[in-house]
Amino acid sequence: MSKEFDRGVMITEVGGEQDDEESSYQIVKDTVIATRNIPENRGRGVYYWEPEACKEILPDGYILCATNLTGNHELRFNKALDSYKEIGVLTH
Predict the structure, then answer these.
(1) Chain centroid, CA 71 distance in Å
(2) Please, are residues 17 and 78 in contact by the beta-carbon 8 Å criterion?
(3) Which of 10, 28, 39, 90 is an S-S bond match for 83, by CB 3.0 to 4.6 Å?
C-alpha cells in the first residue's frame, strides 16, 4: 500500500483479548515490527485501540482491551502494552 499510493502507513487499530495477555502481547509486538519494516521508513506507528477498557466494567463486555480489574474500579494495564516498551517504542 505504501509503495502503490506513495504514502506512509499507520496501523490505527490493533488489540487483543483481555484474557489472553500473551497472544495480545505478541500481536502488538509483531504489528509494530512489521510496521517498522515498511520500506523507506514509511511505517508511522501502531495505535492500540482502547487499551483502557475493561470487560468487567463496560456494560457490553467488550473484550479487546489491555487492562485487568484489580479492585473496586481500579485497573492495571496488562502485558500487551509492555511490547511497546520492550521493543523501544516507548521510552517512559
Answers:
(1) 23
(2) no
(3) 28
